[in-house]
Amino acid sequence: MKIVKPLLILLLSSLPLLSGASLEEIILWPKQAPGYKKGEIGPESKRQPKPGQSEVIRIQNVTQPVITIYPAAPDKATGATIIVCPGGGYNILAYEHEGTEVCEWLNELGITGVLLKYRVPRRANRPKHEAPLQDVQRAMGILRKDAKKWGLDPKRIGILGFSAGGNLAMMALTSYEKRAYAPIDQADGFSCRPDFGILIYPAYLVDRVKRDALFPEVQITQNTPPCFFAHTGDDHVPAEGSVLAYLELEKMGVKGNELHVFPFGGHGYGMRVSSNPVSQWPLRVEAWMRANSWIPKAKE
Q1: What are the pLDDT digits (tens) for 264-297?
Q2: Which end of the chain has the lower number of beta carbons within 10 A, N or C?
């Protein structure tokens, strides 16, 4: 037993590395990303937590955006796909609890997760979401172009975002009619419209003081895809952003939306479980996706 136990521990500790080795990473732009300026930001790295900050992976200085494909197991795969957009104020990416862990959860539901490492921090003299929106639109086209290769249903590709990633998801959901960059190849001929959206404590939708109207760039129409929202009342990012976006979708006649505003939980919890009921949001999302037939209904 003294020999077997260390071997077992070594094997178990190596499993994430073995599974990670099979993940496919795709560089979004064959050359430089649109608007690239040499030396504008430093080299990509993991930011060390400041005193008092939680120990989570924070990626900074992304110049070369990529998507990482987390394929659902063949015996579970439903054909549905979700692009995951971590938050971080458009300055860093909370890459673990709002990224890799989310993709792993999606895999459990038979959904292929696509983790988007979009450009951060904000580029000078450009809207905060402009470069990331180019990245997510490019990613959506690539996924639809090569959907058959990965066993994806091109009509069931959603987007899920947290905080600033939730803002990015909203911009993708409402700004798909025209690409934010000049097309460069065949992938850009495919639709960049998400089929549905999941927004978890989305940021930058309303003014933090007035909280009475969506920002002008959030243009929800009757053609905006249906959305799921989860927020808390004690979040420093106003829950009114989620509420007003939900109400606008309903006003425009978009069917299939769902909104949850929990009393407590704050901001930035991602997939991390706590004693607050907001931790149940993944269960609510699963039920919503099944109700809307993005994934099959659970077997009784």
Answers
A1: 999 999 999 999 999 999 999 999 999 999 999 8
A2: C
User: Is the separation of the CB atoms in 227 and 173 below 8 Å?
Assistant: yes
253 within 8 A of 223, measured Cβ to Cβ: no
What is the percentage of the chain residues whose pLDDT exceeds 70? 90
The per-residue pLDDT for range 124-177, each reduced to its tens digit, is 999 999 999 999 999 999 999 999 999 999 999 999 999 999 999 999 999 999
Report the alpha-carbon distance of residue 21 to residue 18 in Å, rounded: 5
**How many other CB atoms sit within 10 Å of the CB of residue 55?**
8
Read off the pLDDT of residues 87-118 as tens digits, 9 standing for 90 and up.
Answer: 999 999 999 999 999 999 999 999 999 999 99
Higher pLDDT, 183 or 15: 183
Alpha-helix residue ranges (DSSP H) falling in the chain: 4-21, 101-108, 130-145, 147-150, 164-174, 240-251, 281-291
- Two tokens, residue 245: 């976006």
Burial class (CB in 10 A: 0-12, 13-18, 19+), 105: middle
Residues 6+ apart with CB under 8 A from 31: none
* DSSP output for 215-277: -TT----TTSPPEEEEEETT-SS-THHHHHHHHHHHHTT--S-EEEEESS--S--TT---SSG
User: What's the rounded Cα separation, in Å, for the pair 204 and 215?
Assistant: 8
